[in-house]
Design goal:
Elements lengths: L4 H16 L3 H17 L24 H14 L1
């Protein structure tokens, strides 16, 4: 919990790292690595849990929903 003293030291670090996964280039890389790992392990069913509307570009502008879907589709097609 955030209320515990130990988390006060780390909270600002978690906030910075948490944003990283929403940055489009990093999101693409991590999604591709995760799916590639599933393929390598012969995982046939992958339940993808993603909160739409949270990705952003280099200018920290939100990516439209349809663009998010295109990004995910491109990754799948590439693999």
């Amino acid at each position: 919990m955030e209320s515990h003293d130990i988390w006060k030291y780390f909270q600002h670090k978690f906030t910075k790292v948490g944003e990283l996964g929403k940055y489009v280039p990093f999101f693409k890389k991590m999604t591709k690595l995760a799916l590639k790992s599933c393929i390598d392990q012969n995982v046939f069913i992958v339940e993808y849990r993603h909160i739409s509307g949270m990705l952003f570009d280099d200018d920290k502008k939100p990516i439209p929903f349809l663009e998010e879907l295109k990004i995910i589709r491109e990754i799948i097609d590439d693999l």
